[in-house]
Predict the 3D structure of the following.
Amino acid sequence: MLGGAAMTGARRVVLAAVVAVDVVELAAQAGGEGHAVPGIAIALVAAAFLAAFARGRSPLATGLAALAALAVLESVAAAFSFGHQRVHFASGATLAGWLVGLAFARAATQAESGDHGAVVERGDAFAEAGAIAGLAATYVDSGLSKLLNGGLAWADASSVQTAILTQHAVDDSSPLGRYSAFVVEHRGAAFALASATLVLELGAFLMIVGPRIRAAWAVLLVGFHVNVSLVTQTIFYVQACVLLLAFAFPLDRAPPPVVAPGRSRLAVRATARWVVVAVAAAWLVRELSSLGPLASRAGP
Amino acid sequence: MDVARTLLTAFARDPRRPLAALVVAGYAGVAFAVHDLYPFSRFDMYSRARSSASRIVARDAAGHVAEVERFDAWQCERPVDVSPGTCGAPGSYTYTPYIDESRARWVAEHAAQGANGKSASTHGADGERAAGEPVDVVRRIWRVDEGPPHVTDCLLERCSAVRR
């Protein structure tokens, strides 16, 4: 059984590997006649930083650089293919959460003297907590979007029925095709799946509470993804499934990291300030861009 | 109030939890501002309640529908136009552009070859053509209300094709 630091190291490698898969897929999407070289070049830069991150070399700096390269690569891929493929975002959100956790740990353990190894181990614990939160946030966002755009009426059976009809092959006579047809034709089954989707997505917040509920929710979410792939046959968030299982199992039995209460409060306040600044900046950019010339050229 | 304070204190006993809560809140706050800017997204692909769905499919002479990928050697008079306005007012049914476009692309890229080796699908080819059966490219529209979905087909193009 791997210990705390070794387990964190293994999870960091899994995270880097999953993001690397996204890099390859995004590079393939971004590559095309006349623009293959920039896509490959950005992908190589991202891969190099990811390799350094996986080895634990200045993980905050290398992880941040990899994330920036990925953001560019994803934009290029979206521009040259069918738009944003959200299947790639789960690993990015997890990586971003890991980096916020590392930054938090630095603030919380700053100027601490004593055992360097113990300080690093606490940093790992916070990084993992941030990564899990980043992954959970993708589900919470999806649930919030459904509530904001459709209200509780989203859980009406038609949401699941129309999603299956749009995605599933019309001539599938296999057992999976019959299962999909059953859901489409029986509103009770579709309503149950839609309701479960809302509960699972919004409840993903619970994954940050503790290891047992995290493990239970991760299994439920993987089951959700598997079911979606069965009824649509086209949508499978495999990267998210790998990350859910990797960060939920084995159960984390280590006690919470010990940080001086004063330093912990300071780190929470500092992180809260940065979060407020980031959110405010994002909304400011949104408002400014809606006034600019790009917005006036946008379609309906 | 006391209960809330007690719960909050218990929640914050592990210093990782306030951090995690901030990450979730921050991600949501940024994502709902920028919509889709890696790694932030609202994940709102299926967030709107819908009462219809549609898909571009092939319909044979007997009225059976199949995916267009089940056929090859397509010969149509014109390129298949999957723009939503061809089947009623835009917005009267739901469609997924990238899936529709992939179907139209399949028909174009799997066209019958004329004697000169050129695609015969949409160019009124001269020369020999592969023997095909009549196949209509239709937009199948499902309207979901109470009970099973109601189906209507909107003809996009009359073609011939060879079953794979």
Notes: Chain A touches chain B through 80 residues (CB under 8 Å). The radius of gyration of chain A is 21 Å. Confidence is low (pLDDT under 50) at residues 294-300 of chain A.
